[in-house]
Specification:
heterodimer; A: alpha+beta; 2 domains; about 50% helix; elongated; B: alpha+beta; six-stranded mixed β-barrel; 16 helices; cell membrane (chain B); membrane (chain B); transmembrane (chain B)
Chain lengths: ~425, ~425
């Protein structure tokens, strides 16, 4: 009986039902799209913020005080310690390996360059090296300065890591100082040894790097007689903002708390995990980048959350008003049902079933449409897919049914209170 | 006549109209919130992104560099009172030298700590900062220096400062052609060298200079994870005196707000304002900043459009039902001789009234909610933008009119006989 009435109602009032469903779809798609984007915002904006460069610096432990200005080491007081190049791949094997967006090893020293024997810093590094990672599904990863310092630009060409040719990239200021240009050969002297490097590019960074000469890591290692050694690693990691929990002393945590801390991508836990795999290393967050990233991420997340909440509330109210009007125009119907002897509870059940059906249909279609919209946003803004969180589906459906029911409740109750005679008379 | 009909209709159908207005208010408030926030977002984000630190450095130009000239404090103050100050969030002048603590070479930095606090908010200082205004000789040291040399807050630190370092260097000849001897430490490599270029000019001649001890009280330990961990910090005035470089600085770090003018423009403005300097844009910070701002703003625009479409459709379905349920009325009007045009006019007028009322209330509501968001996210209020008012009103009225178009078109096509019969 119920089923027949409802099916008939859907069939005869097709247009009105369609309108109600469309209203629900709109609301639901907005909810699922914004919820989808919101749940992804930390990861996406976090990735974008990685364009600020490395946020973790790994140096040898027990390193002496460095003569360092603007992030560049101009030599140490005592015998320096070094890290091992062959351990670098392990950075991509830590618990948060997928959060490691790039890393770059380097070894530098002050050398004499050019005919005037000018002092200059020579840095050996990887540029964009394809590094094999054993026992991982992704097999290889790219590492080198290009993965951590996206703002570096080179006039000419970059050095190929595989070729191992005696080539150099000159910082723009260094090139001016040495009066060299692309194609020149520059003589480098260090400790009585000398090598000739061919200039293949001029580097622009806006930073202290413009005063340096860059070449392949192995060339500097050979020059300094430090085979397989590096002096620092810069790591760029996607992080989650530090909260109160992250600031606690890890030595005072219980086992469960420590596990929770270890398994959250805080900058401090990622740094610790890197320290664990690189022998004799000291990994420190670069506060300038890390803390600003964390704070900015927190703000943007809060903003998106508030906007999502407001939009959800607004669209919910919008759907509710649409549902209210759709019931208001059916007062006569309610009068008839009552006149032929239906009880209040029966009438209510009848309408509620119909409305729930509208809510479910609208909710499901709206969810699908919303996921599509979220993908559109993800592609347009962040150039990557939005990962759909399982929680979005039940959330959307529950909200969709909830708002349709609430939207109808008041007008139905009002309609039920009315004497059928008055309604049927046509007032 | 028309006025009376519309007026009566609104008065008699108070509930329905209220519901329709409510639907419009929701849509309008979303437009108003998002527009208000989007218009302010660039400015707000530019401020937030200043947390990443300086995006521009002012250094002496090559000509000055070759002649060992630095930047004078008068030139530093140019940044305060010129037409560029509106673009500047903060700046900090620095002077550098090299000294020794317990026979260890360290980089000594002279700075203005009030300024540094503002443009480099990530510095973690255990203990307290150097107080720029006090006359006591205090020092802050980097975490690594503290750990290596075993200093604690409150200790006395004896810093050996190189005397007349700059004078010595000028005497070194430009074309020092002697071969480098086989030394192991890289820092020794820089000794007695002709390098005049920043920052090697600070480091050259480390071991040849005369050093004079000076006692400081240790007030704070700085940790940043950057170069600062290896440096020691004294007050700018004191440093200038001790380095024999009164009223001069090596460089100025500037934090430029990029929402009004592009940073390259500000850089060239500064170079014009302070001749003999070059303003170097730190691409690391400035490029990332532009990228992030662009993305977030784009995201906001998409969300605005999305909510607009979403709330627009829900307004549309509400309007459709309000019109459709009045078919009988339309039939009646037609039966007593109203023209189609007149009937449409009544509906559109009524819709416009709903749109205006909903738009106005929605604008106010949205403005208030934007304040709540601004205050809780950025800790500042969203400023008032006049343009949002007409935009919100126009969009909502248009939305309501467009939503009414289809149902009104359908309603006036109705045969009065059919409707009046009661179908």
């Amino acid at each position: 009986m119920y089923r027949r009435i409802i099916l008939k109602s859907f069939k005869i009032r097709r247009k009105q039902i369609a309108l109600a469903v469309i209203a629900v779809i709109m609301g639901a798609s907005l909810i699922s799209a914004l919820a989808g984007v919101y749940l992804n915002i930390e990861e996406k904006v976090g990735k974008e913020l990685s364009s600020y460069g490395a946020n973790i610096i790994v140096k040898p432990k027990d390193d002496g005080i460095q003569l360092e200005i603007g992030g560049v080491n101009y030599g140490s007081n005592k015998q320096q310690n070094y890290l091992r190049e062959d351990e670098l791949y392990k950075i991509k094997k830590i618990f948060w390996k997928y959060n490691i967006l790039g890393f770059s090893p380097s070894l530098n020293t002050v050398v004499k360059a050019g005919p005037k024997n000018e002092s200059i810093v020579l840095t050996g590094t990887w540029f964009e090296k394809e590094l094999e990672i054993p026992d991982e599904t992704f097999k290889t990863t790219k590492a080198g300065v290009k993965t951590v310092s996206s703002w570096w630009t080179v006039d000419g060409k970059w050095i190929n890591d595989e070729d191992n040719k005696p080539e150099a990239i000159l910082g723009a200021a260094a090139a001016k100082q040495l009066k060299n240009k692309v194609g020149d050969v520059i003589r480098i002297r260090y400790n009585g040894k000398s090598i000739d490097l061919k200039v293949v590019g001029i580097l622009h960074t806006g930073g202290e790097e413009e005063n340096q000469i860059f070449t392949n890591l192995s060339i500097v290692q050979d020059l300094m007689g430090l085979k397989g050694k590096i002096s620092e690693i810069k790591v760029s990691a996607a992080i989650t903002p530090e909260d109160e929990f992250a600031k606690r002393d890890i030595t005072k945590m219980t086992k469960e708390e420590y596990d929770r801390w270890y398994c959250t991508p805080y900058i401090s836990s990622i740094a610790l995990q890197i320290e664990e795999v690189i022998t004799g290393s000291d990994a420190q967050p670069i506060e300038q980048i890390a803390s600003a990233q964390g704070n900015f991420l927190k703000k943007i997340k809060l903003m998106m959350m508030l906007i999502t909440l407001v939009a959800v509330a607004a669209s919910a109210l919008g759907v509710m008003t649409a549902m209210t009007t759709s019931i208001l125009e059916r007062r006569k119907e309610i009068g008839i049902i009552k006149a032929i002897g239906a009880q209040t509870s029966q009438t209510l059940a009848l309408f509620m079933t119909e409305i729930s059906a509208i809510g479910i249909i609208g909710g499901v279609i709206g969810y699908g449409a919303g996921i599509g919209l979220a993908q559109l946003i993800g592609n347009a803004v962040f150039n990557s897919r939005i990962v759909v969180n399982v929680i979005v589906f039940p959330l959307t459906i529950i909200i969709a049914i909830g708002i349709t029911l609430i939207g109808c409740l008041i007008p139905i109750r009002n309609a039920l209170k009315i004497d059928p005679v008055i309604v049927l008379r046509g007032e | 006549m028309l006025k009376r009909v519309v007026f009566k209709s609104i008065k008699n159908r108070k509930n329905r109209i209220l519901v329709a207005v409510l639907a419009v208010v929701m849509g309008a408030s979303m437009i108003s919130i998002l527009l208000n926030i989007s218009l302010d977002l660039n400015g707000k984000m530019a401020k937030e992104l200043r947390a990443f630190g300086a995006n521009l450095v002012i250094l002496p130009d090559e000509n000055r560099e070759t002649n060992w000239q630095l930047i004078s404090m008068d030139e530093v103050n140019e940044l305060n009172n010129s037409n560029i100050s509106a673009n500047i969030y903060g700046f900090a002048p620095y002077i550098y030298s090299v000294g020794k603590i317990k026979e260890q070479n360290v980089v000594i930095v002279g700075g203005n700590y009030e300024n540094i606090k503002k443009i480099s908010p990530w510095w973690k200082v255990e203990g307290s900062w150097n107080d720029d205004s006090s006359s006591e000789s205090t020092i802050m040291i980097g975490a690594k220096v503290a750990a290596q040399l075993g200093y604690r807050i409150g200790d006395d630190v004896v810093l050996n400062i190189r005397k007349e370092s700059y004078k010595k260097q000028t005497e070194v000849k430009d074309s020092n052609q002697t071969q480098v001897d086989a030394t192991t430490s890289a820092s020794q490599n820089a000794n007695g060298d002709a390098s005049k270029r920043w920052p090697l000019n600070i480091l050259s001649g480390i071991d040849n200079g005369e050093y004079e001890p000076k006692k400081f009280r240790l007030v704070g330990i700085v940790s940043t994870g950057g170069s600062e961990d290896n440096q020691v910090f004294i007050k700018l005035n004191e440093a200038q005196k001790l380095f024999n470089r009164e009223s001069q600085v090596n460089l100025i770090q500037v934090s430029v707000l990029t929402n009004k003018n592009p940073i390259d423009k500000v850089a060239s403005q500064i170079e014009k304002q302070i001749p003999g300097t070059r303003a170097r844009v730190l691409s690391q910070i400035s490029k990332a900043e532009g990228n992030i701002q662009g993305k977030i703003l784009f995201l906001m625009i998409l969300v605005t459009i999305l909510t607009l479409v979403g709330s627009g459709l829900s307004v549309m379905s509400t309007m459709t039902t309000t019109v459709l349920e009045r078919r009988k009325e339309v039939g009646m009007m037609k039966a007593i001789g109203a023209e189609n045009k007149k009937i449409a006019e009544i509906f559109y007028l009524e819709a416009s009234a709903i749109g205006l009322a909903g738009g106005a209330i929605g604008y106010i509501l949205g403005f208030l909610m934007a304040q709540v968001i601004g205050k809780s996210v950025f800790n500042t209020f969203i400023s008032f933008h006049v343009t949002v008012i007409p935009i919100t009103l126009i969009i909502t009225v248009l939305l309501v009119l467009i939503s009414s178009k289809i149902p009104v078109g359908q309603a006036i096509k109705i045969d009065p006989v059919v409707t009046l019969r009661g179908e």
